């Protein structure tokens, strides 16, 4: 049986908890252990799915995660909430993307597949150290809680055409795609209804656009020194960069270590 935490800290991964090569620094792993010893719950809040970041959970011992930008939530390794995309909406989205030669990645907490491959898909998954495969029928036989569409200039067109979906640019190559209303913060709200996390202070570290809903909803938003201008503007505190002791310095600023 777990003890009620006295606070919870949410960590974005890419550009925040992780280094550029997607590794976890020993000092960060040590800080996570100290947090836990101090009665503070460390949690991940990421745009990526659980299977993609299992190595981070293993390295840090973290077992509480808001993944796929809020689409899948688990506390202490157990599922708290999951939002699945409507198969008919996925089908229509696939058709539109195919007309524009934009590959789509379909995801759930266990795996993913691509509708097609191009230079952007290869670059993306090489950076993430993931072995991507094309299976044009994967979404028909697997639940889908999240998609990634590889396109570079439809930030406004796609959301207007698909109001049942919410989208946020992940990187220049494409957009994260979730059910409308699903964000990191909606996932965090699901998590905070868990008995171990009710009415405790909330902290969050982040660096990018998909962290803004989370920053708007937690008590103490903390931007990385390498973060985007909008993220820094919304933060209570701007720590140093992710490769310059940013996590440790931010935790020390709030006397969590």
Structural summary, described in words:
The chain has helices spanning 13-17, 26-37, 54-60, 87-99, 119-127, 138-141, 157-161, 184-192, 212-217, 229-234, 246-253, and strands spanning 7-11, 40-45, 65-67, 72-75, 78-82, 104-107, 112-114, 146-150, 165-171, 174-179, 202-206, 220-223, 237-238. The chain is of the alpha/beta class and 257 residues long. The chain has 2 domains: 7-82 and 183-253, 3-Layer(aba) Sandwich (Rossmann fold), CATH 3.40.50.1000; 87-179, Hypothetical Protein, Haloacid Dehalogenase-like Hydrolase, Chain: A, domain 2 (2-Layer Sandwich). Strand 3 and strand 4 (72-75) form a beta hairpin. The radius of gyration is 18 Å and the shape is globular. The model has no long low-confidence stretch (mean pLDDT 95).
Key terms:
257 residues, alpha/beta, Rossmann fold, Hypothetical Protein, Haloacid Dehalogenase-like Hydrolase, Chain: A, domain 2, 2 domains, eight-stranded mixed beta sheet
Quick overview of this protein structure:
The chain is built from 11 helices and 13 strands. By secondary structure, the chain is an alpha/beta fold.
Poorly predicted residue ranges? none
Identify the overall geometry.
globular
User: Which architecture of the largest domain would the CATH scheme give at its second level?
Assistant: 3-Layer(aba) Sandwich
Q: What is the typical, i.e. mean, pLDDT?
A: 95
- Helix content estimate: 25-40%
CATH top level assignment of the largest domain? Alpha Beta
Beta content:
15-25%
Strand arrangement in the largest pleated sheet? 5-4-3-2-1-11-12-13
Instruction: Give the N-to-C terminal Cα separation.
Output: 24 Å
CATH-wise, what's the superfamily of the largest domain?
HAD superfamily/HAD-like
Q: How are helices and strands ordered from N to C?
A: EHHEHEEEHEEHHEHEEHEHEHEH
Overall structural class, as computed from helix and strand content, comes to alpha/beta
The domain count comes to: 2
Sheet bearing the most strands, described?
8 strands, mixed
- Rg from C-alpha positions? 18 Å
- CATH T-level topology of the largest domain: Rossmann fold
Number of helices: 11
Number of E-state strands: 13
